[in-house]
Amino acid sequence: MDTPEAIFSIHALRRAWQWVRRGGAMAGTDGVTLERFNNALDSELNRLRHHLLTGVYQPYPVRRFFIKKASGKQRPISVWTVRDRVVQRVVHDFLAVPFEKIFLECSYGFRPGRSTGEAVEAVIRARESGLLWVLDADITDCFGSIPLQPLQGQIARVVESPLLNHLIDLWLHTPVAGRRGEIAGVSQGGVISPQLANLYLHRFDEMLIAALPRSVLVRFADDFVLLSGSEELAVWSLDVARRSLENLYLRLNMRKTRIVTFEEGFTFLGATFKGRWHRLPTQKGEEGES
Predict the structure, then answer these.
(1) What parts of the chain have a pLDDT lower than 70?
(2) Per-residue pLDDT reduced to its tens digit, 229-288
């Protein structure tokens, strides 16, 4: 098992800092900007490493703001401090190895070497194989609804390091500044949140693939489609998906979930499908028609 000293080497912290720096974002609740952190980079990283290895590291409360969704509802976004984003990125990079050993082929989101384009290509392949019925599904507030205790059980089964389990527990229970009683949870805006959501939904992948061997699941984080060869199987896939999510204490948003055919058309990850035609998100004309 890798030691804390190896996981949080100066090299790993510097690599994580470069990722955080490229990502930008506002200062967290400590007021430290990217520029200020960079101006004292060596001392900041050495102090951060010392706090991690001596067990005194504590994340700062997160700043939370809301953006308006197309539906009119508000999506909460959490802003972590620069130092907390750096630590989360180190843990994210380290966990990519054990997580990749268990994640299934149907999962495309926020994984090394995978992209929305590959997920779209998987949908195209399913269409070409004759799977023309589509469950176009939406999970209600997936990130905000992931229950922490079952998630932590999944983490403990995969993550051997007591320190990493402790750090993830700290982040999940970090208070939200100015909102009494609220904690970060699997917050959108957290560096490690998509990875944790992928781990939690891994069980969902397993249940669907076991119950629907003749259908194809394509999932990108909390966005997914199930492609089937008949209306009957598509209706069955909806029931299986609903019950599988309920087993994980999550729910389908039935107002946004529907069964359609390729002829009727649908949009997934920004790509539009209509019959034998499709348009990728980066295309402005009608290229991609097949």
Answers:
(1) 1, 70-72, 282-290
(2) 999 999 999 999 999 999 999 999 999 999 999 999 999 999 999 988 888 776 433 334
Residue 187, CA atoms < 13 Å, CB-side half-sphere: 28
Radius of gyration over every alpha carbon of the chain, rounded to an integer in angstroms: 21
State the burial class of residue 163 (Cβ atoms within 10 Å of its Cβ: 0-12, 13-18, 19+): middle
- In sequence order, the 6+-apart residues with CB closer than 8 A to the CB of 180 are none
**Which sign does the torsion angle of CA 130, 136, 142, 147 carry?**
negative
**Is residue 181 classed exposed, middle or buried when 0-12, 13-18 and 19+ CB atoms within 10 A define those classes?**
exposed
Q: How far apart are CA 247 and CA 191, in angstroms?
A: 26
- Name the pTM for this structure: 0.91
Residue 138: Cβ within 10 Å count: 16
